[in-house]
Amino acid sequence: PERADITYFGAGPALLPTDVLETAAASLVNFNGTGLGLAEHSHRSQLASNIVNEAKKDLATYLDVPDDYDILFMQGGGSGEFSATVYNLVAVWVERRKQRILKDLGVEDNKQLPENVIKELQKAVDEELKIDYLVTGSWSLKASQEAARLIGPEHVNVAADAREVNGGKFGKIPEESTWKLSKNPAMVYYCDNETVDGVEFPRFPAVLAPKGVDEPIVVADMSSNILSRRVPIKNFSVIFFGAQKNLGSTGVTVVVIKKSLLPPTVANAEPSLVRKLGIPNGPIVLQYSTIAKNNSLYNTLSIFDVFIAGQVLKKSLNTFPNKVDGQQALSEKKANLIYAALDAHPESYKVVPDKSVRSRMNICFRVTHLESGIDDSEKTFLEGSVGVGLTGLKGHRSVGGIRASNYNSISLEGAEKLAKYIEEFAAKPRK
Ligand code: PLP
Questions:
Q1: pLDDT of residue 372
Q2: What's the mean pLDDT in 403-411?
Q3: How large is the ipTM?
Q4: Where in the chain do CATH 3.90.1150.10 domains reside?
Q5: Which ligand 1 atom is the nearest neighbour of the CA of 80?
Q6: TM spans, by residue (predicted)?
Q7: Ligand 1 binding residues, C-beta < 6 A
């Protein structure tokens, strides 16, 4: 088939706008008349810096990222960030705890920490260090497991496990009042949109809102819903996302981070103390302060992928004069169309997550049929969809069913086409 014949609903990597790909393809051979392809240009060149700076600026404009936040382009994907968030925010926690002990004991901050300070710090790490996770789906579960692997399960507090309120399966978000948050955690981590389970936080959790001096350190994985709705950036310490769903091509991961978290910590200044305390000190390429200091060009970065992300941002800025609010309205319209078609036929379809937490991005449902049973109907549904150019609809292998990923590159026409197919399939007689 031709590219134009297909609407691809895969969960990631996702569709990219064809005009962006055409520009990118030409740039791979000869970028801006330099005679050299973009993937061949040095990441140390002015040209590379310009591409990074332009993408940062456009992302900040599109999402209204405040000035006291920095934007980093990193490598290692969303999964790399499961580890990076732990390394970096535990180091910040230890540094702050160290400062408090020094103050309490009236000791000056000095490279050579006295034994009693080290002892106090060790005690604090052993007894107080916690990272809180809201486990609402497969990806936040994976992040919490990575944290347990890195610093030990005794430091990981699962403040909420969605399976406990939904018969052992993901599909709901427990009431905020039931979350068991720690007193002073290194971070509260959650995944804003669970790609596999189709669960999205409807809004920023009120209990995590900043409260004056004692701001909670909130970290969110927005890999699969960034750029699709307005985000109260000020409420977060770190937001991260892989580019490959709503931003660009696979190969870069974006971190939006509060600048106050970037000054050196024990992890930079006192690696031997970190070793003594028994907390992990991650690879330098995952260290936010190092990447920020070098404007994301500490080591070889795929400028080509940053360029594609930049082109997508330019296109979005041109399409939506009111920036991400415009995309948000469209995303909601598309999702509503698809959910309405599903809800209209309860005899044929069952949306997996609870209505209150339905994702606008990953629409997960089962095809049911009273007589023929689920499996057969889903196979027929999928075969028929491919026949009309709707592809990539198979659910994640861990949960089965159907998943329509309604990312930004799915046009309104694409969503309409899927809604129509859902309607028509329900109307067909099936054995
Ligand atoms: N977080 C979310 C929400 C995801 O959907 C994914 C991948 O689909 C990841 C993290 C992992 O990303 P990566 O494959 O880039 O490591």
A1: 62
A2: 97
A3: 0.99
A4: 324-427
A5: 16
A6: none
A7: 12, 77-79, 139, 191, 195, 221, 223-224, 242
